[in-house]
Amino acid sequence: MHDVIIVGAGPAGSVLAALLAAQGVKVLLLERELLPRRKPCGESLNPGAVAALARVLPAGKFAAIRSSMEHSLIHGWRLTSGKAELLASFPAGQFGMACAREKLDYALALHACEAGAQVVEQMRVQRLIWEQGRVAGVVAYSASGQAAEFRARLVIGADGIRSAVARCAGLSSFGPLRKTAFTARVSGVRDLQPRVELFTGRGVVVGLAPIGGGEANMTLAQLSGGGSAAALAADFKASAAGKKDASRTDAAASMLEAASLNMDAKESASASAPAAADNRAPFAASKEGRGAWLLGKAGELPELAERLQNAACTGEVLACGPFDRRVRATQQAGLLLIGDAAGYYDPLTGQGIYRALSSAELAAPLLLQALQIGSDAPLARFAAIQQNRFVPAIRLQKLIEWTSRHERLWQSALRGLGSLPAARSRLAAAIGDCLK
Questions:
Q1: Beta bridge partners of 156
Q2: How far is the CA of 185 from the CAs of 42, 72, 73, 110, in angstroms?
Q3: In this predicted model, what pLDDT tens digit does every residue of 204-246 receive, in sequence order?
Q4: Which of 5-27 are b and which e, b meaning 16 or more Cβ less than 10 Å from the residue's Cβ?
Q5: CA distance linking residue 280 with residue 404, whole number of Å
Q6: DSSP code, position 344
Q7: Fewer beta carbons under 10 A from the terminal one: N or C of the chain?
């Protein structure tokens, strides 16, 4: 029997596993995929995330991780909508970092192993074990379909926006679909900057972040909700009309149309489907076809048309959404949710990895105390502590997301902030979760 089972080897789960194992806690970390694995992500860490990694990793470890993989330093944001533009830099001496997400996750999972945690890959959690009114473990299935029971004093859900742990505990639900997004890595983008760039217009937002080695992460999101998700699916379907892979394109379009629905019922009925497990839906069409479609769609924005003329997708295009994941509680007897599993609103401002790391950092001392005294009482404080840390930034995030949907208002805001250096700097510091 373990002291703690952590489900999900993303940044939150792996860092928490390492922090606990380093204190002598017997930790089992379960990951549904074989590491390293791609995830739909903007692949950028803001200054807050960089600082959090420096805090939670042993001295020199983060520097070693950085030196082991291609990456780019990020010094601020560039927001563009039509002719309106805002350049915002992080406070002096603070920087973000963009890199391949699977390499970062793999390095953090390896660190958890080195700290003493047991990591088991390709284990998909399907249900919780309840004993005397509290969670006492999980039932998971291997890649071959073999069931296994794992028991522990505490179970932690760190398995992302579509958390199986939160769903099985009856703690989560999706809010309204506000957008559907597509993400890929591209090469050949002209004039890449050491910034996260966001371009809005024509009902979409396109994000670019240089990840090193001449590549950039490109994410395209449809902003206008469920109806537009279906319209985007139809556009994708039409883009392949008459091509040999048209039938597979139809299947991909159907997948996108399904994204306009509330997915909870689908998750319960089909928990073993990849799209229901990690917010990822690989397209069924050919790699070349979906890449060309994505670049063509992004290139419809005048600000990007010339910059993408020689661009090419270098890997698979992933579809993801919905993004608004609500939880009614982050804790039950024997169970705690952290990271995106504890609630998720929107990836627009690129603060997800910071919140995942901070969530693990906040949870670790509470879990140690709960294990020491044999009581869940310390875990009941987690929601309030997390709220105190994140709520101001979430309010700003919601304001930015709402404003970006109203083009004229958004452009006016960009122009206004662009003329106010102090306000521009405060905005960059807030979005960057910069140290004060």
A1: 6, 336
A2: 10, 14, 17, 24
A3: 899 999 999 999 999 998 865 444 555 555 555 555 444 444 4
A4: bbbbbbbbbbbbbbbbbbbebbb
A5: 24
A6: B
A7: C
